[in-house]
Amino acid sequence: MSHSAISLRGLDHFFGTGEARKQAIWDVNLDIARGKLTILMGPSGSGKTTLLTLMGCLRHVQTGSVLLLDHEIRGAPEAQLVALRRKLGFIFQAHNLHESLTATQNVLMGLQVHGAGNAIAQRRAAHHMLGLLGLADRVNYLPGNLSGGQKQRVAVARALVANPAVIFADEPTAALDKDSGRTVVEMLKSLGQTRNTTTVMVTHDNRILELADRIITLEEGRVVSDVQQS
Amino acid sequence: MNALLTRIFGRLPIGWLQLIHSKPRFAAALAGVSFATILVFMQLGILGALNNSIVAPYEFFEADIVISADDANTLTDGSNVARARLFQALSVAGVADGAALFIGNMEFKLADGTSSTLQTFGVDTGSGPFLSAQIRDQLNLLQPENTALIDTATRGVAPSVFAGLAAGAPFAFEISDKTLTAVGTLTLGGSFFTDGTMFVSDQTFLRFFANRSSGAPNHVLLNIDDGISADVVVARLRSVLPASSVKVQTLAQAAAADQAYQTTQRPTGIIFGFGVLIGVIVGIVIVYQVLSTDVADHLREYATFKAMGYAQAFFLGIVFEEAIVLAIFGFIPGLIVSLGLYAGMSRATGLPIEMDLMRIILVFLGTIIACAISGAIATRRLAGADPADLF
């Protein structure tokens, strides 16, 4: 097992075809260490989200190499990508909860992707995670009956409940107030310390930058700054 | 329900939960499936009534073989058969006995001025062995002139009209501008073409149908010797009788051919057959609309699940789960309404529109298959669930 959770080498990415073809990522080379909280920053259109989706097996790698958890993504068959995604956790800017499922059921979806398992144990784990995020009294609520911040916390619980090796988060604190946002990021950071979980987060939220182990800044698809924080 | 489905699927019953999340939409979807089910049941019911009414008259006869004109496709159409064919047939080894059968329609005029059309069979009063027990037991009543056995289930005629007959009191009625006396009863009911049935002696028949001749019945009925195959005798008869003027079939073959002809070559049968097809297509379209809209509405959630590592089979499972739920929950009210409609239509038309278990099973399986087909088509929209679009 390598020291890096993610290694990018010579990574380019293009959108469009023909005359409309536009390069979004330019020759990115990075190693993201295991167990660390890495923040990607940069202005809109700088390629942060594209980079995140390439690292998270959500986008086809065109050129270069993406090594995720020691597996080369480029050219990997769909079944291998599906298996890799099960080791990841995603927190989206929009919560993307399933409106027909309760908070508990949404979190259970994060567990059941690994198989049916012990239903009682899974439910207990889901309730525990929701409790950690301050939602113990909302476990049976449908998303429609939760506030924006509560929905986002359910989405965080869904991403974390299966103890993923890597968490990819896109503006996870955007819908949260200052305290809730900090709580979530602190939880992600402590997961790195206790479980060696790697987190890669895109954010514009300056309030949480101090918690990052590393801050990478992109502009126009290129890494322009890479700062390790102690 | 959730617990049961969770146990069945081994996962959260997401399809079910999605469907019931919006009750009005779920109700509308079920109404659509029920409507299609009712449509199919009604068409099959009418088609079944057509089938039953075609073969029902054959059950009055217990002949082994029937000789008809070569252009006859049903009991009632086609040319007449020369009685000489009866005598020719009797000379064939294996033929035990024969009888002529006359068929025509008569107008039964009621006191209130309305009338019902009776399919009238004229038979020799000595032809008991060719007739079912219901007719055979009353055959001697037809020996006097102008007497008849009349259908107590005749459409458009109140059962009270025949009440006296049950008590042994004949009644006279006007038919085809002549007077006939009902001396006995039978029970069959209306068909698509006539309102009831009547049996008379061949002599009475010829008296009422002045243009018909005793030498030219509609069909010749034959019984064969014990211990010989009907097919063997049919083959012998075909070798003796000219195929250019008559055809020889067993009675069962004649009934089957009549049914096949009327359901596949006559407009009535074809229309009802198309009705069934249209019902199925309507059902598929309705369920497809429901499922494809549902898939489109949940693309972001599906994309999220894809990002989490759920494989394509999981999404197909959800869509098929919804299809099966719609099929089952749409079928039940459809069946209940259809049973009511069958009873109402049967009463209103006098046609034998009846539900049977096999039809229920077939329509249920058809509903499941149609919904599954709709689901299979709807799954194509799943391709639009791209997790990269979530960011």
Give a concise summary.
The complex is a heterodimer of chains A (about 230) and B (about 400). Chain A has about 230 residues and is α/β, with parallel strands linked by helices.
Largest sheet of chain B: 6 strands, mixed, barrel
Cα-atom radius of gyration of chain A: 18 Å
Strand order of the largest sheet of chain B: 2-3-7-4-6-5
Order of helices and strands of chain A: EEEHEEHEHHHEHEEE
Based on DSSP secondary structure assignment, what is the total number of beta strands of chain B? 9
From the helix content, strand content and strand pairing of chain B, which structural class follows?
A: alpha+beta
Percent of residues in helices of chain B comes to: 40-55%
Provide mean pLDDT of chain A, rounded.
90
- Helix content range of the residues of chain A, please? 25-40%
Helix count from the secondary structure assignment of chain A: 6
Oligomeric grouping of the chains:
heterodimer
How many domain regions of chain A? 1
Going by CATH, the homologous superfamily of chain A would be P-loop containing nucleotide triphosphate hydrolases
Question: What does the model show?
Answer:
The complex is a heterodimer of chains A (230) and B (391). Chain A has 230 residues and is of the alpha/beta class. Chain A has one domain: P-loop containing nucleotide triphosphate hydrolases (Rossmann fold), CATH 3.40.50. Chain A contains 6 helices and 10 strands. Chain A has a 6-stranded mixed sheet. Chain A has a 4-stranded antiparallel sheet with strand order 2-1-4-5, with helices on one face. The mean pLDDT of chain A is 90. Helix content of chain B is 50%, strand content 17%. Chain B is built from 13 helices and 9 strands. In chain B, helix 12 (312-349) packs antiparallel against helix 13. The model of chain B has no long low-confidence stretch (mean pLDDT 89). Chain A binds chain B through residues 49, 52-53, 56, 58-59, 79, 82-88, 90, 92-94, 96-101, 105, 108-110, 112-113, 116, 119, 158, 170, and chain B through 6, 10-12, 14, 17-18, 20-21, 298, 300-301, 303-311, 387-388, 390-391.
